[in-house]
From TrEMBL:
Transmembrane segments: none annotated. One of its GO terms (molecular function) is acyl-CoA dehydrogenase activity. This is Acyl-CoA dehydrogenase/oxidase N-terminal domain-containing protein. Residues 12-93 form the Acyl-CoA dehydrogenase/oxidase N-terminal domain. InterPro entries: AcylCoA_DH/ox_N, AcylCoA_DH/ox_N_sf, AcylCoA_DH/oxidase_NM_dom_sf. The lineage of its organism: Bacteria, Bacillati, Actinomycetota, Thermoleophilia, Solirubrobacterales.
Length: 176
């Protein structure tokens, strides 16, 4: 992992925002900006894509620090990193300059916040019991979904969905 990500993180600034985030029920924008400034948004992503590198132990260390300071920020951070990892894992090739590589580079730099949107109405919160469907529509794909909630809703730049690809019976296809 790039040196200093966890040590350059200003956990005190995140903790200072926690009480007002909870009391006002608001998105922890300043804390997410601090995660980006420290390079934490790119933990686990390859350095070739602008990520900080590192692995699960590095990720857990940062989550412990952040969630200990502000639970809401911790959840936003976890969903972002897991979403970015899902995008990375969904392809064996994400070179710099490709659409997937550019999205991952923006996520790593903290310019693009992603999250998981797995909670379908009717699934009882079980991510493996998706009821969302994708269908072809001209040159594109339309996703029919009724999400009950998503961490960072309204603040995320992208949402990672679990949905079956058109023409398949697999409810958890990874490619559309």
């Amino acid at each position: 992992m790039q040196a200093g990500v966890s040590t350059s993180l200003n956990v005190e600034a995140i903790a200072a925002e926690a009480a007002s985030v909870d009391a006002e029920g608001r998105f922890p924008r300043a804390s997410v900006d601090e995660l980006a400034r420290a390079g934490a948004m790119g933990v686990g992503l390859p350095e070739s894509l602008g990520g900080a590198g590192g692995g699960p132990v590095d990720f857990v260390e940062i989550v412990q620090q952040v969630a200990g300071a502000c639970a809401a920020t911790g959840m936003v951070y976890v969903m972002h990193v897991v979403g970015a990892q899902t995008l990375l894992a969904g392809s064996s090739d994400a070179p710099a300059g490709s659409p997937r590589g550019e999205a991952l580079a923006a996520m790593a730099a903290g310019r693009h916040l992603t999250t998981l949107a797995y909670s379908d109405r009717g699934s009882r919160g079980h991510f493996w019991a998706q009821v969302s469907h994708a269908r072809e529509d001209g040159d594109g794909v339309v996703v029919d979904a009724d999400k009950t909630w998503a961490t960072s809703a309204g603040h995320a730049d992208s949402y990672i969905l679990a949905v079956g690809a058109p023409g398949t019976d697999d409810p958890l296809s990874t490619e559309l």
